[in-house]
Amino acid sequence: MTEGGQFLTLGIETSCDETSVAILDGETDVLVNLVYSQAELHAQYGGVVPEVASRDHVRKLPYLVREAIETSKVSLKDLSLIAATRGPGLVGPLLVGLSHGKGMAFGLEVPFLGVNHLEGHVFAHRLSAPDDEPPFLALIVSGGHTSLIDVSAYGEYHLVGQTVDDAAGEALDKIGKMIGIGYPAGAEIDRLAGEGNPEAIPFPRPMADSPGFDFSFAGLKTAVLYHLRKHPRERPEDIAASVLASVVGILTKKSIEATRRYHRKRLVVVGGVAANSHLRRELVEAGEERGIGVSFPPLSLCTDNAAMIAAVGAFRHRQLGESHPLSLAPDPSLGIGVQNTETAA
Ligand code: KG4
Ligand code: ZN
């Protein structure tokens, strides 16, 4: 049972295909973090359908809010702040969570804060290792993002690089579809790759040797398509292993180089693709060779969840004095360099 006088934040995340509600006590104590994935719903279409996602968020969100309140034994009137994802993400899904959050803030007469989803991913590290303060480099790698961010302090970010086309997980999901794996395909590609030869097919490593830290994965997808046209009987295990050799090679090279360039000693890896066993192994090995510690917050905090959104909200409200007016609009293409220079209302 929680006592009066605590600072309780209710967080809402609906930027893509996870509906999530969390309640945080203070800035790092997660009382409840409920995540409902729509993946099964979208599997029949082979990817996320925004309209379908929006409708399902509308259907599920109120029940998750109620369940979060009941599970944490918190009373609605004890909530101090409502934080909801403002962007980046799909505009319809964002509108659902943002509007719900604003309605709660209005009804409960508490402050409201719209959160940058990318900053949320960075805060997965604060939740899993509260005493491990920045600076560090963060690699956010999921179905929706592939970004490298220099975190000099919480709230102070420099966008080091990002994908110029597909996110790494998105490319894996599309390649999975080509070899008959259902959506999302990343985990199955990971498993298959363990039984394949990573040197079987020399797939390209787009932008791996280009200057700067941007990524590109669309070309790899096309390379797999052309290869399959020529070699329709290629073993899926070898495709998976060779594709991962490319993706993991690119991610490892760029992230370790960026960490060195920014004179950081630590790299934090978050997002669904951070679950990849091959990526974990290569990053840890490459880090050890260069004196860089690589950490992976637990997967429950790495993939989209509302605890990380509540964590940003609590931090920004308490330490930076921020809140937003209820007129705040979603921003589907919100960048991470933007929010820290923005003056909140
Ligand atoms: O963070 P997440 O749950 O959702 C968003 O994209 O926002 O990430 C999902 C992505 C999917 O593309 C999925 O295929 C990928 O993470 N993924 C993996 C693995 N597990 C999930 N990719 C590679 N290896 C895995 N073991
Ligand atoms: Zn995400």
Structure characteristics:
Nucleotidyltransferase, domain 5; 12 helices; binds 5'-O-[(R)-(carboxyoxy)(hydroxy)phosphoryl]adenosine; about 350 residues; disordered C terminus; 5-stranded mixed β-sheet; binds zinc ion; globular; alpha/beta; 10 strands
Beta-strand proportion = 15-25%
Catalogue the ligands. 5'-O-[(R)-(carboxyoxy)(hydroxy)phosphoryl]adenosine, zinc ion
Main β sheet profile: 5 strands, mixed
The tally of beta strands, per DSSP, is 10
Uncertain stretches: 338-345
- Overall structural class, as computed from helix and strand content, comes to alpha/beta
Oligomer: single chain
Number of alpha- plus pi-helical segments: 12
Instruction: Name the CATH homologous superfamily of the largest domain.
Output: ATPase, nucleotide binding domain
Radius of gyration equals 20 Å
| Order of neighbouring strands in the sheet with most strands | 3-2-1-4-5
Question: What is the C-level CATH assignment of the largest domain?
Answer: Alpha Beta
Fold blueprint:
Elements: E1 8-13, E2 18-25, E3 29-37, H1 39-43, H2 50-72, E4 79-87, H3 91-108, E5 112-116, H4 117-128, E6 136-141, E7 146-153, E8 156-162, H5 168-178, H6 186-193, H7 218-230, H8 236-261, E9 266-270, H9 277-289, E10 293-295, H10 299-302, H11 306-320, H12 336-339
Parallel strand pairs: 1-4, 4-5, 6-9, 9-10
Antiparallel strand pairs: 1-2, 2-3, 6-7, 7-8
Bound molecules: 5'-O-[(R)-(carboxyoxy)(hydroxy)phosphoryl]adenosine (KG4) and zinc ion (ZN).
